[in-house]
Amino acid sequence: MAHSEEKILKDTFAAALAVAEPKHIVPECLARIFPAGSEPKGRCLVIGAGKASAAMATALESHAASHWPDAQLEGIVLTRYGHASPTKYITIVEAGHPVPDQAGMDGAAQMMRRVGELKAGDILIALVSGGGSSLLTLPQAGITIGDMRQTTEALLRSGAPIEEMNIVRKHLSAILGGNVARLAIARGARVEALLISDVTGDSPADIASGPCAADYSTYEDACAILAKYNLGSDLIPASVLAHLEKGRNGLIPETLKELDLVNQPVRNHVIATAHRSLEAAAECVRQFGYTPFILGDTITGEAKDVALVHAGLAREALTHGQWGALPMALISGGECTVTLPAGVKGRGGRCSEFLLSLFAATPDLGGIAALAADTDGIDGSEKNAGAWFTPATRKRARDEHKRAGQYLAAHDCYGFFSELDALVQTGPTLTNVNDFRIILLPAGLRAKP
User: Fold this and answer.
1) Which of 20, 56, 134, 173 is disulfide-compatible with 431, CB 3.0–4.6 A?
2) Beta-bridge partner residues of 150
């Protein structure tokens, strides 16, 4: 039975999400960390932050109810507005993302107070996922929440990739860059961190800026990033610049380093990654008769430019038979950026912008279909996860005289796909393993001269 391109695209995205669902992966990891006979006994403090962390907390409570009869479970987890999940013992706090707010700051302060109350023999379990950096906003002394918000907004508008943004933020934070682990081990507690990765490379230091991990970056790196994007005193608060300068000059302590963790009971477990989701998507699309090619889970850069590269790869496959016979699917992950010109607000996000650029760049490949979506369910400024198109979408755009280039110039990718009824709308997925992209190249397709 033949399946529509729309169904194949959406089913493949669903497969990528399913393999990263907290309700499956959290219990599996807890069973490995605490095998039969070594379950937590006594106080077990659960903390966390990120778009998937509330769902992780729900999964942990369910596992503990049937496997940890002697554990005294309590805790606090921060998540983005609209991403809460039901819990009994663990308090869920919803807060601002990507721009931090007072709710996040108050929740982070409460979290650190409770970590500071741990005693020798207690267990700290951290549930960390993408989005945690801005949710765990607890500024260093002398820096206000307004200062943090202004700095985050400046970095977002500059087009700085998330890895660079987080290097700056962790050096302004009293909680990121390993500061949770530093406080917990000073109290004599054991630390087990479960991480759902939304970053390229899956380094614990990068996932939500590593609250329980050793940090490889320095104050010098943070200063260099601001200089790279010309973010000076006209855009960055004086308190932030002064703090970073003190750190660069060695007047205040650095973030947690590997040397600090020698012989310490701290472990970080990466339980879901973008590449595992790409592999699940590849298996799904294979069942529809397509040969999958995973281009990588570390693809970054300006979204519209990355789309041009993908268009070139698709054209090469069609014109010269690269990688074998059709039909085939090109699958990729990673996190692109969108740089907005001054005075342009835009509508959409990096996934929708990638897709619109791909659409605009492939008029000679009218038979292709594609989808790009953020696995957390929210792509940028609107409430859609991303967008998709098929040959039928292209025909409708042509019939309705919609010019993709005009929408792309205005950074209104949301408007373009919304008007064509081609948005991916999942609502919050309660997981987050970065962006997902797939391009279908059907059998018999050739590039037009």
Assistant:
1) 20
2) none
**Are residues 403 and 415 in contact, defined by beta-carbon separation less than 8 angstroms?**
no
Helix (H) or strand (E) holding 15: helix 5-18
Single residue among 222, 246, 272 that ends a domain in this structure: 272
Which structural domain, as residue segments, surrounds residue 138? 5-272
Decide: residue 233, CB within 10 A, 0-12 exposed, 13-18 middle, 19+ buried. exposed
Cα separation, 307 vs 337, in Å, equals 12
Domain stop point among 245, 272, 299: 272
Provide the token pair at 396.
């409708």
Based on the domain organization, do 265 and 291 belong to the same domain?
A: no
d(CA 203, CA 107): 25
Backbone φ and ψ of 19, nearest 5°: -75, -10
Query: Are residues 372 and 264 both part of a single domain?
Result: no
By the 8 A CB rule, do 178 and 215 touch?
A: yes
- Residue 292 and residue 377 in one domain: yes
Q: How many percent of the chain have pLDDT more than 70?
A: 99
pLDDT tens for each residue of 81-106: 999 999 999 999 999 988 888 899 89
Q: What is the C-alpha separation between 383 and 79, in angstroms, rounded?
A: 16
pLDDT of 166 reads 87
Q: Pull the structure tokens for residue 438.
A: 């797939």
Q: Based on the domain organization, do 248 and 307 belong to the same domain?
A: no
Domain with residue 263: its CATH number is 3.40.50.10180
pLDDT > 70? residue 214 = yes
Q: Which of 2, 17, 13, 6 is nearest to 422 (CA)?
A: 6
* Nearest by Cα to 180 from 46, 38, 307, 359: 46
Side-chain half-sphere CA neighbours of 282 within 13 A: 17
For 25-81, the pLDDT digits (tens) are 999 999 999 999 999 999 999 999 999 999 999 999 999 999 999 999 999 999 999
Q: Band the pLDDT of 173: cuts 50, 70, 90.
A: very high
For the record, the structure tokens of 46 come out as 């659960």
How far are the Cα atoms of 191, 213, 227, 351 from residue 50, in angstroms, in the given order?
A: 18, 16, 28, 20
